[in-house]
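Archive maintenance. Older records in this collection stored only the sequence; we are now back-filling the structure field for every entry so that each record is complete. The fields below show one back-filled record exactly as it appears after the update. Entries are processed alphabetically, and ATP-binding cassette domain-containing protein is next in the queue.

ARCHIVE ENTRY
Title: ATP-binding cassette domain-containing protein
Organism field: Colwellia demingiae
Length field: 236
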Amino acid sequence: MITIDNLNLHYDKTAGYNTRKKTGKKETSTQVIFDLSLTINEGEKVAIIGPSGAGKSSLLHHIYQQLQTSAALCSQRQGLVDNLSIYHNIFMGALARHHWLFNLVNLIRPFKQDLNDIATLCQQLELDQPLAKKVDQLSGGQRQRVALARALYQQQDTFIGDEPFSALDPLMKSRLLDTVLARHKSVIMVVHDRELAITAFDRVIALDKGRLVLDSQKQSINQQQITALYQTSAVA
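Back-filled structure field:
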């Protein structure tokens, strides 16, 4: 599905991500990924873990840029439009599937089928709120589920998520993860919950200070290895 070969990724506050370091007199970019190589095959369920500042979101951003037309992204920033309803925010995930005129009419006066489809999706995500409710009136956990619903509504084979359940309790997190895994052929997700990473995913990738330090199938790793990674980073 995707192969990355010796990736060196830099981030610039004004220019965003780039794979080449700037050569001007004043250096404004920071290297966030160092000499990283990996291959992710179609059908894999991959968790990306690592301490804060390890480069997880940067790697995920790069992967999404390579797969953009065939992947649905659920990012930490959410990208919700506060003054629009739950329905409108979720339906925006389907804009690329329809003609612009269909989208315009459906956003002004939603069609019954789309209302039913989105209502069903919200039920599956345990989002028990009126679809007409504006998202600026929702809690943090509810907003996360709206962002998740919009990504699921894209109906892509690949789901890319950057800690999409961080504001949810462990039981809700586990149930929603099961939904994501069941609805997508391939999943690549930054995961904060280390135990969840090694129990729910096929493969675990760990980063530390922008470098790949672990890449194993789940049956080959254990919680002690993961704990040691975070302890070593904290000491350093």
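Update note: The chain has a mean pLDDT of 88. The helical segments are 56-67, 86-91, 100-108, 112-124, 140-153, 170-183, 194-200, 223-235.
Entry marked complete.
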